Amino acid sequence: LKEENASLRSKINKLQIFSETQADKMRKLERKLEENKIKEEKEAQDLEAMVQHVEQNLQLMTKRAVKAENNATKLKQENALLQVQLKNYKTENEALRSGQSASLAAVKQNADLALQNLLTVITNSRSSIKQLVSGAESLQLVADLLRSVDRIAEV
């Protein structure tokens, strides 16, 4: 019985040591798991912040594109108005040439002024159209970036 007792105590000691070793391993793994959870939470927060930043940029670019579109429409309307004025000035110029109206110099001055205004509007229209195209390209880039962010989030 003493031998068996000693043998069982030895086994119990070994099992206690083994149990403590396993408990230590378990605590280390639990700490590691907690560290990983914290790390993943931080990464998720960072990703969320990035997504919000991209969304804000997208909204800003959308506003800019709408503004550029409105500006282009306004400039096109102004361009059409100036073309009508130019046509009227040309008609008046022809009338002056035939001797039906005021002096030729005034008509020429009006036509030159209309032409200058028309050229200014055309130049401004081109600039606004370029801005609109640039805004559309930026929106496409942001959309592609959002798709990439979605893929990253899925992974």
From TrEMBL:
Source domain of life: Eukaryota
Residue ranges the record marks as coiled coil: 19-92
Keywords: Coiled coil
GO biological process: positive regulation of cilium assembly; positive regulation of protein localization to cilium; regulation of cytokinesis
Gene Ontology CC annotations of this record: centrosome; ciliary basal body; early endosome; midbody; recycling endosome
Family to which this protein belongs: Belongs to the ENTR1 family.
PANTHER family with a match to the protein in the record: ENDOSOME-ASSOCIATED TRAFFICKING REGULATOR 1, ENDOSOME-ASSOCIATED-TRAFFICKING REGULATOR 1
Protein name: Endosome-associated-trafficking regulator 1
Classification of source organism: Eukaryota, Metazoa, Chordata, Craniata, Vertebrata
